[in-house]
Amino acid sequence: MLMRRWFHLLLAGSLTATPAVWAASKDDSRQPKAALDEIHQRLESLKKELTSSQEEHAEAADALKKSEKAISEANRKLHDLQQQQQANNQTLDALQQQKTVHTNNLKQQQALLNQQFYQQYLYGKPSQAQVLLQQQDPNAITRQLHYFGYVSHARKELMEAASANIIKVETLNAATAKTLQKLDSLKEQQEKERAELQQQKGERDKLVKQISSKISAQRNEIDKLKRDEQRLTQLMEKLAKAAREKAAREKAAREKAQREAAKNKARNQASTSQQASDSKTIARNDALPSNAFDGSNFSSLKGKLNLPVRGVVTNRFGSSRADTGVSWKGLFIRASEGSEVKAVASGQVVFADWLRGFGNLIIIDHGGGYMSLYGNNQAVLKQVGDNVKGGDTVAAVGNSGGNEQHGVYFELRYQSKPFDPMSWSVVK
């Protein structure tokens, strides 16, 4: 702080110094030189620290890769568990329906038996021998014997059916209890997976923020020292020039001040223009792909595709990136974390893994040399070799790969060369 305060005072004094002061400044030239040497030493030290931090960042990136792959796998398992739970719920509904049917049948059979027993109790019933002894006609005796046999057989069948229904109801009760136990177990496992996922995500986010903050602070300090070095060097040149000729010095100082003002103005204008460009919303998409064009050649879908996720397109294809200056080869669609990422058309998954700079990445081959890429995902929900249809969910929105915003990086390529997705898409 003392060195910077001295530097600014010296710079201010250099613009208003008298000839006598300039003459004395020759003896003081050692002071800015010492300050410049100090800046050089600090710069070298910071460069070494930055190199060390970048090595730490590389190691952390490998750890980040493992963490994000683990999160992707946990999300996939969670997705599978939800599907299993849906299937078990359907089985449980079917068991409950069967149980209701058999319970109703049992109630009807019990009611019939109760009615028969009640009728027998209410009116009484003579024995078969009494009935037969009262008959004189042999044909009547035969009919009575046949009737008694029929009634006895019907009652036996009714009781056997009731017994069978009791067994079925008990069996269904046991099956229902087993299914409920299985659902409880799946629910417990699902909650455990979710807790592990949240813990892993928290550790990853903390790691990324710590390393990014450290590197950003070091780079800012290096840039600041470089600017100080440049200004101090210019000041030393100005002092040397002033010692030789006051008029030449004053003219050079005015021209230099004008140049610096113009540079600062241009730099500020460029920065303002870049910031406005970076924050601009290119398009807002609310439509999602469907399987309406499945079976069609991909080359015939130009102008018919939908973007893979609902969100905001923040850049144009081929424009320069604000962070690196490299041209965009696709689109970044800012979207809510965890949103479903859809396949834009049918095809086969040929890559589903973590890739440096793209995070969790999935690539779909649509045939005819056409491919689509979906990067920065929180989770990849398909595997290599899977066939997908247009509109199928293939991933979940995230910020893997070190991206600061949640969204999907989307590319279209033909014969490995990228082309503008917006010229092939309908944005609604």
UniProtKB/TrEMBL annotation:
Comp. bias (Basic and acidic residues): 240-263
Biased composition (Polar residues): 268-282
Signal sequence segment: 1-23
Domain M23ase beta-sheet core: residue ranges: 328-421
Keyword vocabulary terms for this entry: Coiled coil, Hydrolase, Signal
Domain of life according to the entry: Bacteria
Pfam families listed in its UniProt record: Peptidase_M23
Gene3D superfamilies: 6.10.250.3150, Glucose Permease (Domain IIA) (2.70.70.10)
Entry coiled-coil feature ranges: 36-112
A GO term, aspect molecular function: metalloendopeptidase activity
Chain segments carrying region Disordered: 240-289
InterPro entries associated with the record: Cell_wall_metabolism_enzyme, Dup_hybrid_motif, M23ase_b-sheet_dom
Protein name listed in UniProt: Septal ring factor EnvC, activator of murein hydrolases AmiA and AmiB
Origin species: Methylobacillus rhizosphaerae
